[in-house]
């Protein structure tokens, strides 16, 4: 699990005022909430007194109160009140705190910094074209595999004809040779603009000749951006480790076409079934991985997976050396049959 990087934390709309939300990220228990003025915060979800989850407590103004003995904490994690102490008790509250996490809220997403410091030097992932609009669709699933397997499953083109074959996406048994150009980006690689594959019926609904860009970036963020005339569609899939063996995968969609919004209720089953297909194959794969088999990434269809491991290792290496990350990849063209 990569450290010193921004992870997708929680969708903005999941954090309602006054509510505390428990999450596990990188094997840490977290509580997310909003203060009275709407500012999002995240703390370690263990009271430093006797360990009760703070998410079982409540928000009082801009403080979080533990459910067990009422210790309260600011959003910076500092203990502000221990109600059972008498006024002249010498306990020093300034020595008591719970870990607080640096967050950025933008475009309907709350990103969380997992690592040292506050992440000010590392860019937060940005969705093109959408301004600060929240997504029209948010759908999240837990995958029973490590973030590495989830990410590789996300950028692996070769599973598509086997796992995602369905009447609304492509014709059964159809395979064509694909050639895609890739360029390195700040934290990953971009598949540069090209005509959308003509075997995708969904793309035709957009109108015009669509241009597609797919950006992949650490720690496991894939952004698909389609432009057709004045319209755009953006899909983001973000992987966040729950722990070593489970990964939260959140899919979000934005679009500019009003008519598409009318179809949102009809679109949801397709989104669900698409991700459920990935989820089902991960369950099968996890069964095989229990035996710790040797794995073999092979040829151009697996090249993006190899790039992922290469930039991930480089990210860790440069963080350890205290140096800025330099992307080790160079421009390349890949070919495969899907
Ligand atoms: S466990 Fe939280 S106040 Fe005691
Ligand atoms: Fe998939």
Task: Tell me what you see in this structure.
By secondary structure, this protein is an alpha+beta fold. It is 20% helix and 34% strand. The chain has two domains: 110 residues, Rieske [2Fe-2S] iron-sulphur domain (Rieske Iron-sulfur Protein), CATH 2.102.10; 201 residues, Naphthalene 1,2-dioxygenase Alpha Subunit, Chain A, domain 1. The strands form four sheets. An eight-stranded antiparallel beta sheet has the order 12-18-17-16-15-14-13-19. A hairpin with a 2-residue loop joins strand 10 and strand 11. Helix 1 crosses helix 6. The two termini are 30 Å apart. 30% of the residues are buried. The site of fe (ii) ion has 5 residues, from loops.
Please outline the helices and strands:
Layout: E1 5-11, E2 21-25, E3 28-34, E4 40-44, E5 58-60, E6 63-65, E7 72-74, E8 79-81, E9 100-101, E10 103-106, E11 109-114, E12 137-143, H1 147-155, H2 160-163, E13 177-184, E14 188-195, H3 201-204, E15 211-217, E16 221-228, E17 231-243, E18 246-255, H4 258-262, H5 264-289, H6 303-321, E19 332-337
Antiparallel strand pairs: 1-11, 2-3, 3-4, 4-9, 5-6, 6-7, 7-8, 10-11, 12-18, 13-14, 13-19, 14-15, 15-16, 16-17, 17-18
The protein binds FE2/S2 (inorganic) cluster (FES) and fe (ii) ion.
Task: Label this structure with key terms.
single chain, 338 residues, alpha+beta, four-stranded antiparallel beta sheet, 20% helix, binds FE2/S2 (inorganic) cluster, binds fe (ii) ion
